[in-house]
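Worked problem 6 (solution included).
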Amino acid sequence: MLRTWQLRIFALSWLSYAAFYFPRNAFSAAKVGILDDGFMSRQHLGILDSGYLAAYAVGQFVWGALAERFGTRVVVAGGMAMAGVAALFMGLIPALWLFMPLMIVQGLAQSTGWSALSKNIASFFTIRTRGRAMGLFSTSYAFGGLVAVPILSWVAYSIFHTWHAAFFAGAAVIFLALALFLVFQRNSPREVGLPAIDDDLSGLDEPHEHRKTRAPVPVVKVANRFSPHDLIAAARNDAMVLRLGIVYFLIKPARYAVLLWGPVLVLDAIPELSAVTASMVPIAFGIAGVIAPVAVGWTSDTLFHARRIPPTVLSLGILVIALILWSPAAHTKSIALVCVLLGVVGLTAYGADAMVSGVAAVDFGTSKYAAGATGFINGCGSIGAIMGGLLPGFLSTATVFYVFAGAAAVAALILIPCWNKRPNSE
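Solution. The predicted structure is:
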C-alpha cells in the first residue's frame, strides 16, 4: 500500500538528512579544542568555512541534476560515504594544509542530501500532501543542526577529551545511516509495483505484488547521458524555479549568520555573558527552527490550499521586523528579550527557508524535476550562505542584521506578484 511506503520513505529520508549534520557539524564542535590547542587561528577557521560553503554551493547545482539521472539511492549513498570518509580523515590527519581539501570534499558530500532526498518525498507524496510532508521533512535539518554540536562536543570533550573524537563520532553516525539507507531505500513507487505518483492516482492504494529483490529497478539508460543543460533543466521547465533561486539567495544568509556566529552575535549584544551562556542562548533559534517547517507546511496546505507563496511572504515580513529590532533589543542587555528575538528570527527564517527550498521547489519542479529544481534553488541559496558566514566577521552585528533585513524585504517584494501562483502541472 502507498501509505506504508510513504511512512517508510519519509522516515528514512528524515533520518538520513538529520544524520548528514553530524559529519557536517563535527568541525563546529571541534573548533573550541582546535583553538585551545593553537592548531589553527580564528582566521584559518573562517577560511575553511568559506571553502566548505563554496563547495556546498557548487554541489547543490550538480547533484540535483545528477539525482534526476541516476536516482536518489546512488547520489545520497555516495554522498554519505564521502561525508563519513572526509570526517574520519579530518580526525586522523594533523596536517593543516590537508584540511581545506577535506572541507571541500565534505561540502560536496553534504550537498548530495537535500535535493535528492526532497525528490524522494516528491516521488511518494502527491502535490496536495507535499506541504505537510516537506514541512515535516524540513525539521530534519533543524533537528540535526540543533543536536549535532552538543552531542559531538559531549563525546569529544567529556568522554574522549580530544577534539579529534568529534570527527570520529560524526563519521560513525553517518556510516550507520548509510547502512540503513542502502537496505531500505527505493527511488519511486514503480520500484515497488505501484504506479508513479503523477501517473495514475486511482491505482495507488490498490494491492500490489511486493518485489522480493532489494535492488532498485534500473532507472538509468546507457544512451541517456548527463549534459550540462541538465543543471538548468528545472529552471527552463518553469521560470518560477529561477525566481525562487533568487529569493533563496537573498534569505539564506540570515539563517547561516546565526548558525555560524550565534554565540558571537549574542556576546556582541551582551558582552558580560560567559561563553557557555552565550552558546546556550541561540538554542532558541534552533528550537524555533524545528517548529517552523511543520507550522508553515501545514498552513500552506490548509489555510492557503497548497499555495506556497503566501506563507513565505508573511514569514519574510515578520523576519524583516525581527532583524530590524535586533539593535534596540541588544541595547536593553536583556537575555530574555534577545532569546525571544532569536526565536522569532528562527521561526520566520526557517519557515521561509523550508517553503522556498523544500515545498515550493518540489511543487514547481514537479516530481519529474524535483531534485533538479531543489538542487538549483539550494545552489543559489548556498552562494548567499557564504555571505552569512563572512559578513559578521567584517561588519558590526547591527549592520549585518540591517543588511539581511533589506535582503529579506527584497525577497518578499519579488514573491508578492506570485501570491496565487501554482505549478503549471496542476
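Discussion: The CA atoms of residues 211 and 235 lie 35 Å apart.
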